[in-house]
Design goal:
It is a single chain. The radius of gyration is 18 Å and the shape is globular. The N and C termini lie far apart (39 Å). The chain is built from eleven helices and seven strands. With 250 residues, it is of the alpha+beta class. The protein has one domain: Gcn5-related N-acetyltransferase (GNAT) (Aminopeptidase, 3-Layer(aba) Sandwich), CATH 3.40.630.
């Protein structure tokens, strides 16, 4: 598993997320057959992909560092995440997890690999203090037992996934080492065979053509984005005609 390296790999990852979410009832049918948001356009967001035979993407996960517009989960857990920010903690969200195998028990090894990559990115590159995530309550045990996530926010419905139930969980990156002491399995999982820095840093930055393709041509993401998100994108990509793109879609 490595960062996506091209527009096509990003598109395949977004299609896998869409397919997985559609089968779970998290999203309605969509003509784009992709699942992405304005957060995917930020150059700080990293999408990892597991590629079979150099072609087919079989699993994906994205890591979204905190940004001028917050995190995706701020939609329903803003107070909980803001409490971490107010403590001076650097937060990042694990999101858009998808595996072509829908049953988490069958895909547990891939889940562990995905989390290994985002853990290494968060600790070796971003120097983050917390990994945050929203999960379906059915999966709570796996995240607590195998990945050491703990409580962040209680049960809520999540409008962005058709009001399915969600729990907010966090992994305190400052205490992971001490919590693993005496458990060889967890030490191996988190701290052995760290992902090489050159792999973590080999991220694909979207071009203006990519941004237009994903946010305007194929989806209404830019049109639906709040103004503060557009202002942030203007700062990251001053070469793009954001106002023209928004006006053309109006």
């Amino acid at each position: 598993m490595r960062p996506a390296a091209s527009r096509q790999e990003l598109e395949d990852a977004y299609r896998l997320v869409y397919s997985s979410y559609l089968q779970r009832g998290y999203v309605p049918p969509d003509p784009s057959r992709m699942r992405l948001s304005v957060f995917n356009a930020f150059p700080t967001t990293v999408t990892f992909v597991a590629v079979l035979r150099s072609r087919q993407i079989i699993a994906t996960v994205s890591l979204v560092p905190d940004s001028p517009i917050g995190l995706p989960m701020d939609e329903i857990y803003h107070a909980e995440v803001q409490k971490l920010r107010d403590q001076g903690r650097s937060v990042a969200e694990v999101t858009m997890l998808a595996d072509r195998r829908l049953e988490i028990r069958r895909s547990l090894s891939m889940l562990l690999l995905m989390m290994k990559r985002v853990f290494d990115l968060a600790t070796l590159v971003l120097n983050a203090n917390d990994l945050c995530i929203t999960i379906n309550p059915r999966h709570e045990t796996y995240y607590e037992r195998y990945l050491l996530f703990s409580h962040l926010g209680g049960l809520k419905t999540y409008p962005s996934v058709r009001s399915n139930p969600a729990l907010a969980r966090r992994l305190d990156l400052d205490t992971v080492r001490s919590r693993c002491e005496g458990n060889e399995e967890l030490i191996n999982e988190f701290f052995r065979d760290r992902t090489p820095l050159d792999v973590l840093l080999a991220t694909y930055r979207m071009t203006p053509d990519d941004l237009h393709y994903f946010l305007v041509e194929r989806t209404p993401v830019l049109q639906e984005a709040p103004q503060e998100a557009v202002r942030a994108l203007e700062w990251f990509y001053p070469e793009c005609p954001w106002g023209e793109w928004r006006a053309a879609e109006a």
